[in-house]
Amino acid sequence: MLSRGFCVAAALIVLGAFDPALAQSKRVMVLHSFGREFKPWSDYARTIRTELERQAPWPLDITDHSLVTARSSDDNPDAPFVEYLRALFARRPLDLIVSIGAPAASFIQRHRQQLFANTPMVFTAVDERRVQTSLLSEYDTVVAVRINYRTAIENILQVLPDTKNIMVVVGSSPIEKFWRDEIEREVQPLADRLAFSWTDKLSFEDILKQAAVLPPHWAIFWELMIVDAAGVVHEGSSPLARLHAVAKAPIFSYDESFFGREIVGGPLLTVHDTSQQTAAVAIRILGGEPPGNIKTPPIRFATPRFDWREMRRWGISEDRLPPGSEIFFRNPTVWEQYRIQILVILGALLLQGALIAWLLYEHHRRHAAEIMVRNTMNELAHSNRVATAGQLTASIAHEIRQPLAAIAVAGQAALNWLNRQQPNIKEVNTALRNVIEQSHRADGVIENLRAMFKHEQTLREPLDVNELVERVEELVSQSLIAKKIVLQAELAETQRCMVLGNAVQLQQVLLNLINNAIEALEASAHWARILHLRTKIQTDSVVLIEVEDSGPGLDPNIANRLFMPFVSTKPGGMGMGLSICKSIVEAHGGQLTARPAKPRGTVFVVALPLFRGGTSA
Question: Are strands 602-609 and 542-549 parallel, antiparallel or unpaired?
Fold first, then answer.
């Protein structure tokens, strides 16, 4: 390395002797803290070089050198590098040295008298705390920054107020150890709100493993990762990219050089501000102005900026951003993406509007004829309603017949109990209560039919299917006992089976189905007379009520017409019961079906929507 430096220096001297333009050029050395590709300094160095070449009125001979010894924790690692630089610039001194970062600034100040006693110097991309102002000479000036770690951490709490823990990613090189202690000191006032964990004792692979399993309410603050605890050196953007790929928590930092892919954002030091000011100061020095006379205030955080993609990823609302924040990388709007297509579509719509206007004019001409046709159709519909009046009369008779028959039976029973030698007042009371209840039921049927004819909405309310079935069981219990029919009820007891419906109508459906089953069982002279009632939830949205008998089963000849009006399986039957039941169930948003039972009999299934509070499921 040393011999190669001598060769370079010699070549420059020779070229300067034969090339007047090169001899008049300004010689500038850029000293990097760790290497040319270590963030964030690499971004500052590139931008400063670009600004120097843009602003300089003279040719510039810029060379780059890296202080690789800054990665080491040895007591005196500088000696070989000092000898190299002394030999390299011994015969032709530099016009300006630009040191990038704190390690480079410290190296220059330690060896200024040995190497560059009278060479103008600009310390840049360095926090003001890392510059020893007592060692600054008349040949030195500083373009410093000020990193406010407390502000950076408070920004995390503002955009993610539920944050409880922060992992601070920092390595184990000397400069990283310094900043680890400085961060801990600055954020001490936040200790009652946040817990901090540090990575200076971990290898980078262990850091990735921890970041991949972070629980909720964690955030990651990226300080530096130059050398990890295992001694591995990390340069470029690869470490932060690897962390971003596995992290289960949002990543924040303080420098713009990390912004644009991995970090959420916040108040940042901008590369442009520092680089532009550094280049301007360098040009003034190269123009002859004494460095010691140039004083610049430290560069502080700029307007907060945030990455819209990371905000969406971590659910950060724009309402939580600091006032005046800038949002970058927002997806373009539909108008921005498809402006031409939208304009074409609007033009087509205007053309279509003109065509529609013409069609409306044509439509108006036909309006009178359509009114005449509509009146004719209304007259035909009225004739059709008159023709169906007979069917409706039969329906009404069928609906009223059941409660009236029940009233007659209960009244006769009451008379029988009264006519005994010793009247049974308790049984009379029960029979009279049944008379009253059946009269109320008949009134409810009439009200429902009247509402239907007047197109009124019948009252519906949440109903427990199990309670509905149990009530129907009470109504038919005496009939079942008299006809020696065994009732087996299997009700869903694991959860409530709620539906939204009209209690009178649904009770009417179940009574009709049960009475049909009783009549079928009366024909079962050779088999056990068993009636099954079941309720269950078929899916998360359907409640089933099953009525199964052990009778002779369905006649195959009418099975596919079972629910049609005026189709009956009983001698003298009107054929309206099942048709009405099907209409009621469908009006409740359900279905009524029938299938053969095993080994014999018929199963009628009422499927109704499950009710879960505000609406049916």
Answer: antiparallel
How far is 148 from 155, CA to CA, in rounded Å?
A: 11
- In angstroms, the CA 1 to CA 21 distance is 29
Angle between helices 204-211 and 238-246 (to 10 degrees): 30
* Closest among 598, 570, 578, 584 to 507, alpha carbons compared: 584
Residue with tokens 């610049």: 296
Letter for the amino acid at 246? V
The answer for residues whose C-beta is within 8 angstroms of residue 38's C-beta and 6 or more apart is: 32, 226, 235, 236
Quick one: 355 exposed, middle or buried, by C-beta within 10 A (0-12, 13-18, 19+)? exposed
How many Å apart are CA 422 and CA 417, to the nearest integer? Answer: 8
| Closest C-alpha to 309, from 345, 342, 261, 341 | 261
Instruction: Check the CA dihedral 307-312-315-320 and report its sign.
Output: positive
225, 172 in Cβ contact below 8 A?
no
Q: What is the mean pLDDT of residues 17-38?
A: 73
| Fold annotation for 388-457 | Helix Hairpins (1.10.287)
In CATH, the architecture of 459-617 is 2-Layer Sandwich (3.30)
Instruction: Residue 457: name the closest of 616, 607, 588, 614 by CA.
Output: 588
Encoding tokens for residue 571? 């001698």
Whether omega before 80 lies within 30 degrees of 0, making that bond cis, reads no
Domain boundaries, the chain: 2-145, 149-268+301-328, 340-385, 388-457, 459-617
Task: State in words which class domain 2-145 has.
Answer: alpha beta
pLDDT tens digits, one per residue of 318-367: 999 999 999 999 888 778 778 888 888 988 899 888 889 888 888 888 88
Q: What is the pLDDT of residues 533-557, one digit of tens each?
A: 998 888 778 989 999 988 888 777 7
**pLDDT digit string (tens) for 98-117?**
999 888 888 888 888 888 88
149-268+301-328: CATH class: alpha beta
The helix-helix angle for 389-418 and 425-453 (nearest 10°) equals 170
The separation between CA 555 and the C-alpha centre of its own chain, rounded to angstroms, equals: 57
Contact 602, 549 (CB under 8 A): yes
Q: What is the pTM of this model?
A: 0.53
What is the Cα–Cα distance from 598 to 483, expressed in whole angstroms? 23
Q: How far apart are CA 39 and CA 266, in angstroms?
A: 18
The 3-state DSSP composition of the chain as helix, strand, coil percent (nearest 5) reads 50, 20, 30
Rg (CA), the chain: 46
339 CB burial (10 A radius; 0-12, 13-18, 19+): exposed
How would you write 404-432 as a 3-class SS string? HHHHHHHHHHHHHHHCCCCCCHHHHHHHH
Query: 213's torsion region: left (phi>0), alpha (psi -120 to 50) or beta?
Result: alpha
